[in-house]
Amino acid sequence: MGIAYERSVGFYKDAHTHDRPMLVMPRGSCVVKVRTGAWSLSNTEAGWISGIYYAAYTIVVPLLSSLTDRVDPKRVYLGSVALTAVAFAGFAWVATGFWSALVFRALMGAGWAGSYMPGL
Fold this sequence. Notes:
Layout: H1 3-15, H2 28-38, H3 43-67, H4 73-93, H5 98-119
Helix pairs in contact: 2-3, 3-5, 4-5
């Protein structure tokens, strides 16, 4: 491999080190398909669980992005990453049906909004 390849890989690793929490972005939709049978969800309920993520993200982005003008962006970012981690853990270990899954997916979207936009 050439020097250009090594430099591009090195640049990619350096430039994307802060993106580690963002690797799990909206990966929940594949899990919803598995949980649909286990939780006896209708297609509509599965759609709500999948879509609430994006709805929460859309609603929370303007709030948390403007909050970074008044509060240190690191605090917003780290708090949002923590919220995202708690939401993913809750979805995996606590959610037992439609309503609990809906809440955890909404928290995932809100956390993603606060970690993605300030992280840019």
